[in-house]
Amino acid sequence: MISRLLKEIFFLFNEVAIFLLLGFIIAGVLHVIFSDSIIKKHFGKNSLGAVIKSTIFGIPLPLCSCAVIPVAASLRNSGASKGASISFLISTPQVGADSFFITYSLLGYIFAFFRIIASVITAIAAGITVNLYSGKKNDEPAIKSCVNIPEELFLIRLKNFFGYIQFELFGSISDAFIIGIIIAGAISAFIPDTFFTAYLNSPFLSMIIMLGVGIPLYVCASASTPIAAALIMKGISPGAALVFLLTGPATNAITISTVVKSAGKKTAIVYIISIAVISVAFGYLLNIITLKYGFSKIISASGYDMLPLPVKYIGSAVLIGMFVLHYIKKFYLDNIRQNKTSSEAIRLNVNGMSCMHCASSVKKAVEAISETSDIQVNLQGKFVEFNIKDKNKIDAVKNLIIAAGFEIA
Fold it and tell me: What CATH number was assigned to the domain covering residues 340-408?
């Protein structure tokens, strides 16, 4: 049984590795080209244009459901409208460059583009509804920050291209991806091929169940894709899998509580209902299309045979190397550095950090004060430690961390 599980895990890993690397490279290029100021510039108006722009900006960005929370909070505090913030919060984690290519490799280009279209419509519909509900008078952020974090210059972003991919982007999804690929392998190895057709033969009921699973569950877009692919191959309807892919990354308990806090309970209700209704609608539509044109034509149009096997092996080897480097840094190098922290270091407890992207954002916020040094961010302990020459500037550091979308405990 263990050998069968390992075989399925290896097969899935080998199929998605090269496509995941391609998605990382494209995401890194987008990070270099688009600065934070470009994104924030277009989100402030309470208009359809701001909602559409926030959706378009959000779709290719490789931010998972945890990393997008502080970014959306920062945009909101910088003056972005409720509708634009909600659209960004929905479209960004639902599908990014990396998850698009994984979807293509496992489920085909038709399913991949269907996923993008559903994400766009969900985000725009929710943003428009929120703007119509809130109006201009009620659209001021609860906490509007007057402090901005100096953004990295283009040449610095270019210089840190591979570092961003390895330590920030890959580091943010590594744990979730491993869990997702193991779950997908277990489903493929141990669940009978006729399980879902025998016990869950109602497409609509399966979509409702996936809706109930996806809304509270914390899962990133890349990690959820192998799980969805495994469920489809075991007989669950493509529409139900799409519902899981749309709701899982965009909603979880942390995201919902953030929306309640920053935009209000009624906005959070609109947010959840919009995702639920449109996800089920698109799932139903995908099921109809699959029945009309055939399962194999919709799902099998994938990248399985597009690349020769040696190329896939190279992709897997590179990805395994990235995992090794990530965990060496996470469990060994970072611990050594934190043990060297001086007794005079300032420690600030930071709420809202949940991934490497969050840790990087907090570090950049502290680095914005020129007199800080020896900055160490501890994700497990939820704190940042640093040395600073002028203790009077500690409040400035706190303000910059808050401006990045986090809270000082």
Answer: 3.30.70.100
